[in-house]
Design goal:
mainly alpha, elongated, Methane Monooxygenase Hydroxylase, Chain G, domain 1, 75% helix, Serine Threonine Protein Phosphatase 5, Tetratricopeptide repeat, single chain, 237 residues
């Protein structure tokens, strides 16, 4: 694994391009029950974000008054952030794989889709080691696949989930260089900021999180960036 460069934020600023995924007209509509499930998951995700915001608003007031309460709130934030990741995984399993339509007549494309789904199932089950190995294999075998940027992103998430933040940071930053048009760019930048925070690089983390907040206002990644910035500011007092 390569050493992490501290110029990651500069790379982010140069490669910061976000294009929305387009949906082919021929894509089959999702089933009604799947749409309802996604709506419910999004509602839960929004509720968690609101809960995070409420907690972070109280951290500054409590951090200097009660260190124990501060530690409890920080722990709760970490757990909520883990839940957000799990929900993102659940949503991605229903959206990303369905959005990226492959040529069913192409045997290699079909095999790539199946292998990606298999690796993703391991991730959903929380088997991060096995999922990581599967995603690594996928990136080696299917470098031209439509799922290659997604595979790299979820590979990085396996490191993040196990608190291997230096490795996660390297993967998140490599996506920004290799796939600047990926729909995963906002999340990779956000998670780069999170990794810098966990590694103790607070100034770098703040620069990146401010970038996310300004570049993607009124989005889930922006709200999570704001909440993490409040936590950083509280820790520095």
């Amino acid at each position: 694994m390569c050493f992490i460069l501290l110029s990651g934020c500069g790379t982010i600023e140069k490669t910061l391009i976000f294009q929305k995924n387009t949906f082919p007209e021929e894509q089959e509509p999702l089933k009604t029950e799947e749409q309802e499930l996604q709506t419910e998951e999004r509602r839960v995700l929004q509720d968690i974000e609101k809960n995070l915001e409420f907690i972070t608003l109280n951290i500054t007031k409590l951090s200097n008054e009660n260190a124990k309460t501060f530690d409890q709130l920080t722990s709760k934030i970490n757990k909520l952030e883990t839940t957000v990741v799990e929900l993102q995984i659940a949503l991605a399993s229903k959206e990303e794989i369905g959005i990226k339509i492959v040529n069913q007549n192409n045997a290699k494309n079909q095999l790539a889709r199946e292998d990606f789904q298999a690796a993703f199932e391991l991730l959903k089950e929380g088997d991060y080691e096995a999922a990581r190995n599967s995603f690594v294999t996928f990136t080696e075998l299917y470098q031209e696949s439509e799922f290659i940027d997604d595979a790299k992103y979820w590979l990085a998430e396996t490191y993040y989930a196990q608190r291997l933040f230096a490795y996660a940071l390297e993967e998140f930053e490599s996506i920004q260089i290799q796939f600047p048009d990926s729909g995963k760019i906002p999340e990779t930048i956000l998670k780069s900021g999170f990794c810098h925070f966990e590694l103790g690089n607070f100034e770098q983390a703040k620069r990146i999180l401010n970038l996310v907040m300004n570049q993607y206002p009124n989005t889930s990644v922006a709200r999570l960036a704001v909440q993490k910035l409040k936590t950083i500011n509280s820790n520095e007092k």
